[in-house]
Amino acid sequence: MLWKKVEGQMSEAMSTGIILTLSGGLQDAYTYFYRGKVYANAQTGNIIIFAHSIMNRNWKTAFSYLVPILAFVAGIYVSEIIRGKYRDSERIHWRQIIVIAEMVLLLLVGFLPRTFDLAANAIVSFVCAMQVEAFRKMKGSAFASTMCIGNLRSATEMLYRYHQTKDRENLEKCLRYYGVILFFAVGAAAGSFLVPLFAEKTIWFSCILLALAFGIMFVKENQETVEVD
């Protein structure tokens, strides 16, 4: 059996996925611990609190959780617009355009004081949505860089398949998913540690990570993925 090396885009490489996952964890910790306990990524939590606030007629709180939900929806939509318009661009990958937009928006968030928490949470949720929509694969497998539930499900499924088949590829995928979850936790821990030190500017550390991801996406990755006779 022979394998032919083919070029792949670094947007799906392990290194890019790790960097984006660190950034995703930091973003969620930032909005939760500094911007009023709102989730930037986990919109399920925001929907629960929104519904609870509606039932208790707490309209102000309901609105503060509705805004990031709608911003997340908008982020998905805009990401698809960018992909549709620039997917055939040869000068720059459309996912790099997404990353540039993320950096610019998060840089702006770092200037917003606590009185603008609603706007800050909306922007970060918008950014997270763009990222989760644009970066959906790592080494050919579906993954999420801004949330853990899908990765946890996939990791445990691959663990079961490995125990059933003893196929090392399933084990590698399992460890890869659990590794992504670990890096998300590291990013969240970093966010909680940095917030007391840098306050609203903590989000700029996410910009640094995104800048690194943007740079490495110019590299072409060689992957042994094609079987040839």
How would you briefly describe this protein structure?
Helix content is 68%, strand content 9%. It contains 8 helices and 4 strands, in the order βαααααββαααβ.
Total beta strands: 4
Q: If you consult CATH, what is the topology?
A: Growth Hormone, Chain: A
CATH architecture: Up-down Bundle
The level 1 CATH classification is Mainly Alpha
The strands making up the biggest β-sheet line up spatially as: 1-4
- Helix fraction bin: 55-70%
Main beta sheet:
2 strands, antiparallel
pLDDT < 50 runs, ≥5 residues? 1-6, 222-229
User: Judging from the principal axes of the Cα atoms, what is the shape?
Assistant: globular
Structural class: mainly alpha
Order of helices and strands: EHHHHHEEHHHE
Number of domains: 1
How many helical elements? 8
Strand content: 5-15%
Q: Look at the structure and give the mean pLDDT.
A: 89
Q: Distance between the terminal alpha carbons, to the nearest Å?
A: 7 Å
Return Rg in Å: 19 Å
How does this model look, in words?
This protein has eight helices and four strands. The chain is mostly helical and 229 residues long. The protein has a two-stranded antiparallel ribbon with strand order 1-4. The protein has a two-stranded antiparallel ribbon with strand order 2-3. A hairpin with a 2-residue loop joins strand 2 (137-138) and strand 3. Helix 4 packs antiparallel against helix 5. Residues 1-6 and 222-229 have low confidence and may be disordered.
Summary keywords:
two-stranded antiparallel ribbon; 229 residues; 68% helix; disordered N terminus; mainly alpha; two-stranded antiparallel sheet; single chain; 4 strands; Growth Hormone, Chain: A; 8 helices
